[in-house]
Amino acid sequence: MAKKVVATLKNKEAKGFAKVIKAVKSEKTGAYTFREEIVPLDDAREALKK
Question: What distance in Å separates the CA atoms of residue 36 and residue 28, rounded to the nearest whole number?
Answer without folding.
Answer: 21
